[in-house]
Amino acid sequence: MESRDGRGPQKPLLTLLLAAPRGFCAGVERAIRIVELALAKYGAPVYVRHEIVHNRFVVDRLKGMGAVFIDRLEEAPEGSYVIFSAHGVAKSVVSEAEKRHLVGLDATCPLVSKVHVEARHHYNAGRDIILIGHANHPEVEGTLGQLPDGAIMLVQNLSDAASVQPARPNRLAFITQTTLSVDDTAEILALLSRRFPRIVGPGKEDICYATTNRQNALKHIAPLSDFVFVVGSPNSSNSQRLVEVALKAGAKCAALIQSAAEIDWTRLIDARVVGLTAGASAPENLVEEVIAALRTRFELDVRDALYMRESVRFNIPRALAS
Question: Where residue 279 sits, what CATH number does that domain have?
Fold first, then answer.
């Protein structure tokens, strides 16, 4: 079929529903800014324990600026600056840094720090603690490491919730990872509440505002979409949850992609409406690249699907503020 101007085949029409909010949250923006300011103030290298956020494009950009990402504190020379990632770290990591005379800069998201405070509060109040989260995730490891070994029981799913046996069921509290599926967590909490009616939780839920908002925004466009793309990294919990949310909300298909280069075009052959969002650690330029790639193959009708506007901002550490 010729295009209207006669310059060649007409591209098929594709409606793109662009979820909002999407992409960077305040905690991620703060963590990245901490690395940038530390490099500007102290010069390279500045060491970062684990990925500052779960996105390889962000990590690679910071590497190019002089950040050195390490898995073990022994990799940082004594006296150097070390930044702890947005996911938080165990108390033992902070103690080890002090013993090695490292200058620690804490980029832990304030909403993760809130969960750490809750854990210590419940422990000091003599309660058994259940943490709802995913094993081996850095945030979960950091939260477990706030208290002595065995002080927190990890519940990952409904099966765990049905079998967990706290020593003091009438003195029980729960906390959660901040990047979980809102709906899945609600099911787990409902089961725990039936089993342990006196269980107590936080005054305000632990799943962070950004995770909740991105999931809710996606729920509005998923039922209308033949395919949903979630831009994010495979090791990003909140991005993985978005794929699950899209499918549960009614999207015919959904896929996690790190960049436009990972688009499987064969899956869009019959698509007429595509949804697009991004995890909280994915920069907006990656979303823009996906849109540009779609334009090369489709006559694109881009529609902003605004769920709500976010205005949350977090302060940076005083050591970097001046």
Answer: 3.40.1010.20
